[in-house]
Amino acid sequence: MSGDLAESESRKLLQRLRDTLAAPGASQDRLDNITHHIADSIGAEVCSVYLFRDPQTLELCATEGLRPEAVHQTRLRLGEGLVGRVARTGQPINTADAPAEPGFRFMPETGEEVYPSFLGVPIQRVGEKLGVLVVQSRQSRRFTEDECYGMEVVAMVLAEMAELGAFAGGSNDGVTARHRFPAVFRGTSGQEGAAEGHVWLHEPRVVVTNPVGDDPQRERARLAEGVAMLRSRLDALLADLSLGGGDHADVMETFRMFANSRSWMRRMEEDIDLGLSAEAAVEKEQGQARARLERATDPYLRERLHDLDDLSNRLLRILTGQGRDTGAEMPENPILVARNIGPAELLDYGRKLRGVVLSEGSVGSHAAIVARALAIPLVVNAGRIAVEALNGDAIFVDGDTGIVHLRPEDSVAAAFRDKIAMQAEAQKRYADLRGLPAVATCGTRIELYMNAGLMADLPSLEGSGAEGVGLFRTELQFLTRTRVPRRGDLATLYRKVMDNAQGKPVVFRTLDIGSDKVLPYMKPQDEPNPAMGWRAIRLGLDKRGVLRMQLQALLRAGAGRPLEIMFPFVAEPSEFTRARAILGEQLERERQLGHELPTSIRVGAMLETPSIAFAPRSFFTSCDFLSIGGNDLKQFFFAADRENEAVRRRYDTLSPAFLSLLKQIVDRCDEAGVPLSFCGEDAGRPIEAATFAALGLRKLSMRPASIGPVKHLFRRIDLSELSRVVAGGMESDAETLRPAITDWLARNG
């Protein structure tokens, strides 16, 4: 096919495919008719459609020219044979001698050995791989560039047909209906808890209902109008003074550069000339560019993938009228489903959400921090859920196990509701303990504090029965803004936090950014291991302007009352000494300015690196208090990245080695007379919390929802007995003390 003839034949073929889609009949009949039309149009003896049966397996679902008995019998693994290679790479293969190609797999049941010419193109939709379209010929030849291009256009239409359910059928067809059946996604727990609700998509999927265009001129005009509107909106965003220049302006300039690209426009116009609608042409170019950029090793080029997706999605929403600002109402009990989401966007939803599920993300991401602050279940790394889910779908989120049930069967729904009911009943029991102290049967008292990071957390202070805020994360106010917050705004916020605490202590941790928490307005550092890089107090000591400003805000907020400040990620004594000196300078500055000062100031450090556990005694005595940052300390102690699911659960907090380190820290703090607390996820797990108390820790800080279960256990056990069990276990050869402690708890009811 070439020239005007190519365009004419291509449009005729696409129109026949559209008519096939509209015709009544079984999905298998549609597939059979489609392969016949394609083979006839391109003049090939063979046309076959392979679709994914599961994420790793392709199945021959229809063919014109190969043996009919091979349909639904021939299967290949992803990457296996030429078909599997096309599916894995997302790139076409065009060869005159298929058996000579690397990785060729002979499938005798198909009878394909007499067809050496092979052209395979991916059936994909914006990076979502659905299958492979193959044409073959007896004549040994490479298919022309026009023929390859025409097959890519046809594959695009097949992808849209699959999205619309054209190939959905019964089990005999070997093809399942998309967006209809139950699905289970196994991700990573980002925040514990269980929730039932309905899907609310952060970026609603644009569905192209008209992949074939009848009138190329009309579709070109629609595309031109849509691109003009897109450019106008980008210009308006750039002109908005609220962006304030900087990185945001650079991003929008990149968008505008893409939007004004003549090559991008020309490729979409060529797709339209071959028979695609305007929106299908946008999706085709988006998908092919995505496949190219995903293979790029240059981080800059890979980052442009997000720019391209954003730009294409904006244009698709303009052309289809779908997505944001369409007036769709959030369903009852919404559970947010997204590929990823920023902290400010998640905060905009607020407490309306019952849970959050992300296809990407990490347990330490900004979204995870906000989800914990909002006390809603979160599952991250949940695979293809953002693709599979539709607005309003029933969904169950198990933040304890990281499992998500989409459109669950009745039996699964009933079991999940039982779990939620049991948790609710337990919370009622814990509520009765709210005003009671955490005193063990032996008389030992443990102070239970809560972690916070938002004003919205503070109502939990009274409701949970916490004795104060053991950790107030100050970075959220920086992460959710497009520029550095002003000192006055921070002082007002910190003052409100202390007001809402109603006299209970609040420990403010200074800015802990870097690693997985990068400010939107701060240039990211290209570090090979950011968790052990330029972060927290290291960044604060190098960027002293921000640290000084934050300390000034804290001093002004604490005027006339006690103030507690904690520096994060101290790895050697000199870092604490220098940070405390900066605080002293700001205190003197505030005194000279005549501002009212706090009545007292206690200054502490987070012990998050093994190195500081072995610091000289003078370091311990120089601190007013210390807090073990369990999450970081554990990952550095075991050399196990807590963002790496393959290793993060491999090492147990209750291993004798880690408990020995904690015991050493407890003893050193006792000897130096410095108060010590434990802050982290493990503090909120009853068995771990009891073990820490048995080691001598008397102050634990956790998420508000954990205080009830932890207090409930403390009030039923004898810590002096448990201390003997823990001490004995630490001398044993056991890899973990968990079985011994669990057995002891069971024996004691």
Helix content estimate: 40-55%
Mean pLDDT: 83
Unreliable residue runs: 1-5, 170-177, 241-249
Topology-level CATH name of the largest domain: TIM Barrel
Beta-strand content: 15-25%
CATH class of the largest domain: Alpha Beta
CATH superfamily of the largest domain, called what? Phosphoenolpyruvate-binding domains
Largest sheet: 8 strands, mixed
Q: Indicate the structural class.
A: alpha/beta
Q: Radius of gyration, rounded?
A: 31 Å
Number of domains: 4
Question: How many helical stretches?
Answer: 28
Biggest sheet strand line-up: 7-14-13-9-10-11-12-8
What is the β-strand count? 23
What's the architecture of the largest domain, going by CATH? Answer: Alpha-Beta Barrel
The separation of the N and C termini measures 80 Å
What features would you describe in this structure?
The protein is elongated. By secondary structure, it is of the alpha/beta class. It is built from 28 helices and 23 strands. It folds into four domains: 3-173, GAF domain (Beta-Lactamase); 183-204 and 328-423, 3-Layer(bba) Sandwich (Glucose Oxidase, domain 1); 216-320, Orthogonal Bundle (Enzyme I, Chain A, domain 2); 432-747, Phosphoenolpyruvate-binding domains (TIM Barrel). Mean pLDDT is 83; it is low at 1-5, 170-177 and 241-249.
Which helices and strands appear, and what pairs or packs with what?
Elements: H1 3-22, H2 27-42, E1 46-54, E2 57-64, E3 75-77, H3 81-89, E4 93-95, E5 117-125, E6 128-137, H4 145-163, E7 183-186, E8 188-191, E9 194-201, H5 216-239, H6 246-259, H7 262-273, H8 278-294, H9 299-320, E10 334-338, H10 343-349, E11 355-358, H11 366-374, E12 378-380, H12 385-388, E13 394-398, E14 403-406, H13 410-431, E15 438-439, E16 445-452, H14 459-464, E17 469-473, H15 476-479, H16 487-501, E18 506-509, H17 536-542, H18 544-557, E19 562-567, H19 573-592, E20 600-607, H20 610-613, H21 617-622, E21 625-629, H22 630-638, H23 645-648, H24 656-672, E22 676-679, H25 686-695, E23 699-702, H26 704-714, H27 719-730, H28 738-747
Parallel strand pairs: 9-10, 10-11, 11-12, 16-17, 16-23, 17-18, 18-19, 19-20, 20-21, 21-22, 22-23
Antiparallel strand pairs: 1-2, 1-6, 2-3, 4-5, 5-6, 7-14, 8-12, 9-13, 13-14, 15-16
Helix pairs in contact: 1-2, 1-4, 5-6, 5-7, 5-9, 6-9, 7-8, 8-9, 13-26, 16-18, 17-18, 17-19, 18-19, 25-26, 25-27
